[in-house]
Amino acid sequence: MWISPNEGAKFWLSVLTEIHNRGVKDILIACVDGLTGFPNAIETVFPKTQVQLCIVHMVRNSVAFVPWQQRKQVCADLKAIYSAATESEAEFNLELFAEKWDKQYPSISLTFHGIFKRQTRRDFQIKGADGVKVVKIKQKQGRKMMNWWDKNFASCELGDERLSNRGYSIGKKISQGFGKALSEIFKSGSELKRAYEFSPIGKQNLAGS
């Protein structure tokens, strides 16, 4: 863990250099926010790394000064760029975006033009959108599982070591089983029953029965 009073390219360069000196030879893919100089810092230490900018940060920064009345449409037009199945389609949609919005918000298309090469999917060797859809499905399943865990298991009585250990054990099983049904995560009926009894919902239902 590194702590710094401010975040800058110089700081990240020192962090990356230390990581390299500790024995990390290469980073396959790095997805970063829009911090100026961060991609260059990564490529200086790990020249073979495929650096891409986080699309969430890109869109958020692009629409920061767009009025709420137009933000939804601007975001939809930007999505046509970064969700395109091919590089040529993305470039075409970027030109359409520029024709439509440059009079009001010229900096948005300039931003996307300047970093466009980092956003193309060819670096990931994905053919079409199927691969991306699979990733999104897995991410959605993971989020649903984590939300379920937070709601039902993420709290226990402070100082009760037995409950804390049981909660940790259940949480570990769930975290290792993202995308699976509970019946697959807990192989036996007794394990599933104990997990249910430990949850607030289970406690409430059992108390009322």
Characterise this structure.
Keywords: DNA recombination, DNA-binding, Transposable element, Transposition. With 209 residues, this protein is mostly helical. It has two domains: 9-124, no CATH class; 130-208, no CATH class. Helices cover 63% and strands 4% of the residues. It is built from eleven helices and two strands. The protein has helices at 9-21, 38-45, 55-62, 68-82, 87-101, 106-114, 130-153, 161-176, 182-185, 189-198, 200-208, and strands spanning 29-32, 50-53. It has a two-stranded parallel sheet. α4 packs antiparallel against α5 and α7 (130-153) packs antiparallel against α8 (161-176).
Strand order of the largest sheet: 1-2
Measured on Cα atoms, how large is the radius of gyration?
23 Å
- What percentage of amino acids are in beta strands? under 5%
Q: Mean pLDDT, nearest integer? A: 73
Helix content: 55-70%
What is the oligomer described by this structure? Answer: single chain
Q: Could you give the distance between the termini?
A: 48 Å
Morphology: extended
